[in-house]
Design a protein that fits this description.
It comes from Streptomyces venezuelae. The protein is of the alpha+beta class. Helices cover 51% and strands 10% of the residues.
Length: 421
């Protein structure tokens, strides 16, 4: 009786907060949208028929496979690699700090991290910086020949002169289409070309005068140069010489260019690299999983580090004395000994991932939420959206419970085995 008296408050709370909601969800899943008509298992059939719910189920499976395993592996690596490092504690503290941030705050942070604009999104700022290191973007992506221009399209985005050029005769390469504000900082005024005996000279410039005025296909005093524009001299389909325009737009080619056609290659007009569309339909789920791993890898690391601290050092030293290298010690001793801890971490993260909601809801833009959808988010959208159907929503909740139960049973069986040892 005394034991029952002490257990009664806990049992009442358990019944009110767990058992009653589960029972009501099962009951409600058997009724229609209004809750007035019994429909049996029709709501469960709707789960199989609805494309959005099936996609949410598929994405949940991707989450269950990728997120816990990735977080556990990273946690294991962090725990092992920092074990004998002097600053290992500080590193573990930094890795664990994201656990102090709520899912909502982490979602807002990573919504900004994954912003498409490299000037705002950290991920694309880094990505674009690396890309532009090896493939520089053009400063004139919108440039094109104007009316009656001596340049014509050559296919593939390049432009060529209508006629072969001659040494001593200045060449004009007028282009339009680049907004004045989009010209590179420090752009100078274009200078008309001066003829040089035995050489091909010319100017590449923006044939547009702000405020109007000026002559077409002529270098006017207020017009801007296309500094750095690449010009190639082509004879018989081969590039015999190439040069870049100076700061004032002028360029000079040797006598080898005499009789050649000048070509402005497509690289001059390549669109600036905008980075990766992290929150597009193809990458939104891996991107959100990345945010989750950032938060929970520290949790895995702390638990695994605690288990690693309990591993007998004599066992590891004996293996090293017997000639085992660090990789063999890690693979054949550390990982098998830590197996119970790894299972605990993995199972805990699987259960956590099953109910993931806030990260997906906050990070994924509305236009791709269907692509990033998971069961917990679909439960919310179905039960409380503009077209709410709490019958189907309750069926999704029951399905989610049924998916979590086997994982919980595995955890309970493991705990019983540990207790019986």
């Amino acid at each position: 009786m005394v034991a029952a008296a002490f257990l009664l408050p806990a049992l009442l709370l358990l019944g009110a907060l767990v058992v009653q909601p589960i029972g009501y969800s099962v009951y409600r899943s058997l009724f229609d949208r209004s809750g007035g008509s019994f429909v049996g298992l029709d709501n469960y059939g709707e789960i199989l028929r609805d494309d959005a719910i099936r996609n949410a189920l598929k994405n949940t499976a991707v989450w269950v496979v990728l997120a816990p395993v990735t977080a556990t592996v990273l946690g294991l690596l962090f725990a092992v690699l920092t074990e004998r490092v002097r600053w290992g504690t500080a590193f573990k503290l930094l890795v664990f700090m994201p656990m102090a941030i709520s899912m909502l705050a982490a979602g807002i942070i990573f919504r900004l991290v994954y912003e498409q604009d490299p000037d705002r999104g950290v991920a694309n700022a880094v990505w674009v910086g690396v890309h532009d290191t090896f493939a520089e973007s053009s400063a004139f992506p919108k440039a094109r020949p104007g009316r009656d221009s001596p340049l014509v399209p050559a296919g593939g985005g390049a432009y060529v002169t209508r006629e072969p050029v001659r040494a001593g005769v200045p060449v004009l390469l007028p282009l339009v289409g680049v907004a004045p504000a989009a010209l590179p900082e420090g752009t100078k005024t274009a200078r008309p070309p001066a003829g040089e005996p035995g050489k091909v000279t010319g100017t590449a410039w923006q044939d547009f005068t702000r405020g109007g005025g000026g002559q077409t296909n002529a270098v006017d005093p207020a017009e801007s140069a296309y500094a750095g524009m690449r010009i190639e001299a082509v004879k018989d389909g081969k590039v015999v010489e190439s040069v870049r325009a100076r700061a004032d737009g002028t360029f000079t080619l040797s006598e080898k260019a005499d009789g050649a056609v000048l070509r402005l290659p497509a690289a001059n007009f390549r669109e600036a690299y905008a980075g990766v569309d992290w929150l597009g339909p193809a990458l939104v789920t891996p991107a959100v999983i990345g945010a989750y791993v950032w938060m929970w890898a520290g949790f895995a690391m702390v638990l695994i580090a605690a288990g690693l601290a309990a591993v007998p050092r004599e066992l590891l030293e004996a293996a090293r004395v017997d000639g085992a290298n660090e990789w063999q010690v890690f693979r054949r001793i550390t990982v098998p000994v830590l197996a119970p801890v790894l299972v605990v971490v993995l199972v805990t993260l699987v259960i956590n991932v099953m109910k993931i909601f806030d990260l997906v809801f906050v990070i994924a833009p509305g236009s791709v939420q269907d692509d990033a959808n998971v069961l917990a988010l679909q439960l919310y959208r179905t039960s409380f959206g503009t077209d709410a159907d709490q019958g189907v929503g309750s069926a999704i909740a029951v399905l989610l419970l049924l998916l979590v139960v086997p994982v919980m049973l595995v955890n309970i069986r493991r705990l019983r085995k540990e207790r019986s040892r």
